[in-house]
Amino acid sequence: MNLATPSLSDPEFHLFRDLLQRQTGIALSDSKRTLLVSRLQKRLRQLGLRSFSHYYKLVAADQSGEELRRMVNSLTTNKTSFFREPHHFEFLERWLRGRSAQGGRRRLRIWSAACATGEEAYSIAMTVWQALGDLSAWDIRILATDIDTDVIEKAQTGRFRGETAADISRENVQKFFLRGRGKWSGYLEARPELSAMIRFRRLNLIDESWPMQHPFDAIFCRNVIIYFEHKTRLQVVSHLAAHLGEGGHLFLGHSETTAWSRDLLEPAGHTIYRKRVRQ
Amino acid sequence: MKLGTKLTGGFLTVALTGAAAGYLGIAAINAGLDRLSALTIQTVVPLDQLKKIADMYAVNIVDASHKTRNRNFTWEKGLASVREAKDVIGREYKAFLLTKRKPEEERLLDELKPLLAKADTSIEKLLHILTQRDDHQLTNYAIEELYSVIDPVSEKVSEMISLKLKLAREENHAAEEASGSDRKLLWIVVLLSATGAFGLGLWLTRSITRPIHQTMDVLAAVAQADFSRRIAVDREDELGQMAASLNQAAEAIGRSLGSAVVVLEAVSAGDFTKRLDSELKGELARMAVALNHAVHQVGNALTEVRENTEQVTLAAQQLAAASDDLAQGAQEQASSLEETSATLEQMSSTVKQNADNARNATKFAEGSRDNAERGRKVVASAIAAMAEINASSKKIVEIITAIDEIAFQTNLLALNAAVEAARAGEQGRGFAVVAAEVRNLAQRSAMAAKEIKTLIQDSVRKVENGTELVDRSGQTLQEIMNSVQRVSAIIGEIAAASQEQATGIDQVNKAVLQMDHVTQANSAQTEELSSTAQSLSDSAEQFQKLVAQFQLNEPRGGTRTEPPKHQPRKAETRVKTRIPRSESGIVSLARRTARSGAGSMDGFEEF
Known about the structure:
The structure holds two protein chains of two kinds.
Chain A: H1 10-24, H2 33-47, H3 52-61, H4 66-75, H5 86-102, E1 107-113, H6 119-132, E2 139-146, H7 149-157, E3 159-161, H8 170-176, E4 177-181, E5 187-190, H9 192-197, E6 198-202, E7 216-221, H10 230-242, E8 244-252, E9 265-269, E10 272-275
Parallel strand pairs in A: 1-2, 1-7, 2-6, 7-8
Antiparallel strand pairs in A: 3-5, 4-5, 8-10, 9-10
Chain B: H1 3-69, H2 75-98, H3 103-132, H4 135-223, H5 238-268, H6 282-424, H7 427-548, E1 603-605
């Protein structure tokens, strides 16, 4: 069995790079060649292909789009964890408590864009439960989307390996999760109250229009646009801002700035942005 | 005509007329004085003399006489008084004689003389009386003689006085008339000269004050900083020159101030390129130099500021570009960190798999070794069995050979028998059949023996092969065992390496986590840096706008450098080695050993 990695030529790299850019907006720089090779070579091995050109042809020829979906799934990075960048959730909790104290409409719409395996969506759900207490008095929906269908499937199960909850306090783990037994020992399952709030869907952020019709109170889109090039970033952030209600908040990843969208969004905290109220 | 001349002339004229008037006046006064002195000398003095004389007689002497008589005077005093009076009379009379007299006065004098003589004689008598201190005589004298002597004198003197007065009055009159005409003349002259002087004065004054007023107007305008007025110069004297000079001065100052104003207005409009011409003199030249210098200095300073501002703007742009690059880099770093993290997670599970696989492999290796060992034993017994087979085969071959020979012999015998049978004829038919059967049997035996032999040979060959194979298997098994041992050793190393790998991955994980923190911190700082760069850029832009309002001379020397365009950040080629990321969900992870298993359900429950 020949275990040597097939080599990736420049034209081949450009083909995949352009395809990925077109389909997902993800921009691969030259330094990401090795990444491409390592992510795709397993599939090549599975399919018994010896060249990346063959694989590309296969992807292009697949009418069902299944192979393309697989390719996209394997090229996307899904790094996520519970309460990643905790200051966002602290902010959210404060804001929700304030909203609850104010009275007014008890309707909440939050969107976790690029949710990967769902930790972010469940962290949001936990924060909401923590802040509002009695969930029955509220109309809450949390939308969680990602371009990678594999991770959406996993996220939908609501099951997580015990280690992933290492950062959650023991009492919160007991409050929010059920513990697995038998073949699921070592796993945690989110409580139905949390799962009930969340809907998982596939969505591509660079689609020109998104199917959601109502504005959101908060959108989490963290550490996604770092994979896009500048133009795409602008486009996606504007699009996200368009789906925020007035005074709604946009949560971005720690290195992401919106210096160029100051007319739409005003800073409300560290990588937290509020949609400007129209004058 | 020069003003001095005019003034001098004018004053001279006035002086002359004044002098003339004065001279006339003095002459008149002199005449008057003459007359007055004449009057005094001729009238007043003599009158005084006469009065004194009269008084001496009428008062002093009489008085002395009476007082002596009444003892108000002592005899001595009376005597002295009369003597004194006498002296005075004498003195005065002498003096009077020296005075000028008119003829009428002469006549009276002539009449007086005897009376005086008489009086003098009487006074001598009185003196004598007084010397004698004779009261009685005195009283007699006083009553009978005194007045009779003195009164005529008094009367005569009075007459003379009156005459004098009359004459004086006439004289006075004449004098008055004389003076009157003098005065008239003088008045005329004075009036004339006054008018003349006045007129001259007016004329002079006007000719001076007019230009002076003009000058004052112009100077007043100058005092109000209006340098546009000029004096009409229509004369060549000092005033005309002064006017001309004033005009020039106003012109010069006006022009230079005008230029200065132009320069300063230009400066206030931001234009520092204008200068004052320095063909001025004195303070204006100093002002021009100072103003030029000041404008030059400020212009230079602004030029420097402009250059510095351009540099600052460039620097701000570079800073903004750098912070953009940093932000971009931070985002790329974040993406790389995420990918690294994801890869590390995969690596972690791969390493775990490796460790598990290594364990399993070890088990299998051990199993294999046991099997190999067993195999070897089997092989040994196989070899032994095969040797026995061989031995048996050999024996069988021997037996078969014997059988074959027997068959052969039997065949021969059968042949013979057949021949004999044939010879025997009828009786031998049965025997021939039997012999034929025997031959058949013998042939069949021989064939069977041959087959068996072939088989046996075949078998022997097979056994030989088999032995070879078994030998080889034995060797192979030995090799397998050796390999298994080596594999076990290697697996052991792999397990150890996996352990190190796990430790390494842990360290890398920690490092990545730290890098994540650092990246976060850097992003925050980059955001601040970006906004600082932005505000610096804004300030520099404002500053530039401010400075751009000014027109300045181009800097001396050195070409101005164009600000470099912002280069888009070139992606660096970074070579990273990546370990294949196993697809999620497909590789089954080693489960931990199940908890106490009997009857446990697979599901989720409360804590």
